[in-house]
Amino acid sequence: MTAETANDIEPPLLSLRSVSVDFSPGALARMLGASLVKAVDEVSFDVRAGRTFGIVGESGSGKSTTVRAILGLESISSGTVRYNGVDMSTLRGRRRKIAAREMQMVFQDPSSALNPKLRIRHLLAERVKIHRSGEYGNRTTIVRNALDDVGLPHTHLDRFPHQLSGGQQQRVVIALALISRPRALICDEAVSGLDVSSQAQVLNLLNDLRDDRGLTIIFITHDMGVARYISDDIAVMRKGVIVEQRPAEEIFADPRSDYTKTLLTAVPTLPRTYGFTEV
Amino acid sequence: MTTTHERVPILSISDLSVDYETDYGPFSALRGITLDVAPGEILGLVGESGCGKSTLGRSLLRLNDEASTRYQGSIHLDGTEVLSLKDTSLPSLRGSEIAMIFQDPLRSLNPVFTIGTQLKNAISLGGITDKRKVHAESISLLERVGLDDPERRLRQYPHQLSGGQRQRVVIAIALAQSPKVLVADEPTTALDVTTQKQILKLLRQLCTDTGMALIFVTHDLAVVWQLCDRVAVMYFGIVIEHGAVEDIFDAPVHPYTGGLLAAVPSLETEKGRPLATIERRHDGGQGGGGWDDDSAEFDAVSPNHFVRKAQTSRVDVERSSNDC
Ligand SMILES: Nc1ncnc2c1ncn2[C@@H]1O[C@H](COP(=O)(O)OP(=O)(O)OP(=O)(O)O)[C@@H](O)[C@H]1O
Ligand SMILES: Nc1ncnc2c1ncn2[C@@H]1O[C@H](COP(=O)(O)OP(=O)(O)OP(=O)(O)O)[C@@H](O)[C@H]1O
Ligand SMILES: [Mg+2]
Ligand SMILES: [Mg+2]
After folding, report:
1. Residues forming a β-bridge with A83
2. What spacing in Å lies between the alpha carbon of B264 and ligand 3's midpoint?
3. Looking at the 3D structure of chain A, how many domains does it have?
4. Is the Cβ pair B163, A197 closer than 8 Å?
5. Is residue A15 assigned to a domain?
6. Nearest-by-CA chain B residue for A110
7. Element at B306 (helix H, strand E)
8. Residue A85 within a domain
9. Which domain holds residue B155?
């Protein structure tokens, strides 16, 4: 495993050190005695290129805020985020733009990520124009391939976002992110609204991109089965802090923190296992 | 669980078809849906993304865009024919008779009003007028859906909450009016499993205690197994199998149902091996799945288990993208 040794020397693609994000209450709330909310509290982790880093944890524990902070969508109160060894807060102008293109995010609310006035065809073609302008002549092929990848029929190209189902919108958002050919993809509950089969298709696609193109993935999910399947390493968050952070297999085989144990016992299960052949 | 002969449905859907008008002609989103729900009962609705679950849910409240939606069939809710109601009667239907938790929580919350304003408004519509009682009720509802620091949450705006917190506020708003029927469209997709467990327990308890009927749309079959009394499996706009959860999970008959169950990733799924997907025909975007006949005829596998007639061969269910 030469890649493994190389990785040990290479800096991680993404590196967070003691990152905190505070939300200050509004003036009125302050008068009523509200204090600062520490949504993310001294979070540190590394994600090496070509690896998948899963984040699970309590609702409201700071998962979305953490990844938004990586992208500069929330301002960091203390700590540093390094991308490719460079402190993100020092990036300006063109270099910042490049980093923004290289890191794509699939947001938790798909509808807010899609311009309601544009047809799907237009939305996707626009993305080719912005991020792969050299290939704009091939946009039809690129757009169609992107839809195939996420399992949407081409007939949906002429629809407006509101004419799609929730899971179809979610897949358009994933297609948009992938058209940009990111180095790192940040998925916030990106498959949570998909049936098992569509979900499997997207997860298989992400695994292929990771293996073939070295895509680096941060994957937030509430589905413990999905987290275990897709992730190399997992962080478990609660109340703004990471309570446990280890390789995926280990967390599931031998959870250490009480919170992780509670989570694992709450996972809903089927009455038995089902095989494809017996039906 | 109620037995078949004493069930008196509060909601009966019969032979419901829904078409959406698009620039490219009508799109058939639902065909020949016949289902019912009794008070206190929980009906799970599952099926592939795009198969019509949300369309069905919205239809029950007539919430699809009226200008571009065509309904056929009947939706009978507590003595009222929903499809023939005048527009002016719709507001009195929504909320206290039937409420819906939307798949996209942002859509149901107004960004310019605080959580408190929106929740208290729903509580007043439910009939409580005394200001102090409304406040107490709003705190109690937020606590029941597991939100920390409810006093502070009441003063916050939707964008100040996490995805799962917003989802729980929407649940609280829906429950505020004590509806007789609640349609919950993927209400726990952003909730960690412990919070989800708490919400499912709350919903189950409300159904048992108040007789609320619940239609629960989800893609999580383990949740169906845990929560629901009955389940309807949808495929390209039709119901292909429905009945008691025990019966269907014990012995699924339709290959699509079996495929869905087999494709669920578990904590034992082998890593590094591609996940199984279900191979299916594309509907060419026309909707209705190209079903030849509109008949909603079912074979009774048992008194509590029904599977659609003679359509089984039309779905190619196999473990694709796998090495077995
Ligand atoms: N703009 C904001 N102003 C004030 N508080 C905020 C703001 N955004 C988030 N918060 C708070 O920060 C905490 C973390 O929120 P975040 O969205 O990161 O949680 P999460 O882990 O993604 O949860 P979920 O799984 O429910 O999506 C929450 O308690 C939330 O209320
Ligand atoms: N306003 C509309 N106009 C045209 N077609 C629509 C409209 N709304 C939904 N559709 C189509 O109708 C079908 C059913 O959509 P619906 O939202 O009911 O699916 P769903 O089962 O809820 O899927 P998901 O699990 O992805 O949310 C989809 O193929 C969708 O593209
Ligand atoms: Mg979140
Ligand atoms: Mg839906």
Report:
1. A14, A86
2. 23
3. 1
4. no
5. no
6. B104
7. strand B305-308
8. no
9. 109-178
